[in-house]
Amino acid sequence: MKTTDYIINWLEKNLSAKRYSHSLGCANTALKLAKLYNLDENKAYLAGLVHDCAKNTEDYKLLEIIHNEIKTGFDESELKNPKTLHAIAGAYLIQKEFEIDDNEIILGVRNHTIGRVNMSLFEKVIFLADKIEPNSRDEKYTKKLWKMIEQNKGTIGLDLALLRCFCETIKSLVKRKLYICPATIDVYNELLLSVGELLEDD
């Protein structure tokens, strides 16, 4: 694997200043969550750091990578919203560019936009870190999610925060008339059946 310094320098050169700042914030938040849930902090930090490595690549280039180099392991529905392309390509890019071969990190990057049913605890941490990092996310919103995490025992708070994220994502997609991937609905339903009765109204 390439060194952390190499990865940080690459990200700084290949991402916008805003996206680079977001990536650093996500890395630090992933580390904080990993500590809270007794996960590997170094791996969480690295996954958070690289999760958006393909974000500033043009959509047509992402589709070329997906169709010509990746070819399998994705559903066609994931390609109908351009905002989800970078996760598929990013999971490939971190292996090719950074020589990362850890499956947890690869899956964390792969599933940080749509998620998937039966996500691992590590995947949930990376997904949520992306949504609550302090460098680019709304402070009022992130504080609300942190409160859920801190006031509920075990992973219940994590799942409640994730459910709130999916609620907001679906509302936003509907408002903007954007395609909703079926996997998004599946994860929402899974979380709703698990902890939905504990989720308080806004």
**Strand count, sense and closure of the main sheet?**
none
How many structural domains can be distinguished in the coordinates?
1
The poorly predicted ranges are none
List the total number of helices: 10
Q: How large is the share of residues in beta strands?
A: under 5%
Mean pLDDT: 95
Name the CATH superfamily classification: Hypothetical protein af1432
- Apparent shape: globular
Element order: H for helix, E for strand: HHHHHHHHHH
What is the C-alpha radius of gyration, as a whole number of Å?
16 Å
Distance between the termini: 44 Å
Let me know the number of strands: 0
At CATH's second level, what is the architecture?
A: Orthogonal Bundle
Helix content: 55-70%
CATH class category: Mainly Alpha
Q: Look up the CATH topology.
A: Hypothetical protein af1432
Given helix and strand content, the structural type is mainly alpha
Characterization of this structure:
- This protein is mainly α and 202 residues long.
- The protein has a single domain, classed as Hypothetical protein af1432, CATH 1.10.3210.
- 66% of the residues lie in helices and 0% in strands.
- It has ten helices and no strands.
- It has helices at residues 4-14, 17-36, 41-50, 59-70, 85-97, 103-110, 121-132, 139-151, 156-175, 182-195.
- The longest helix is centred in the first third of the chain and has 20 residues, at 17-36.
- It is globular.
- The termini are far apart.
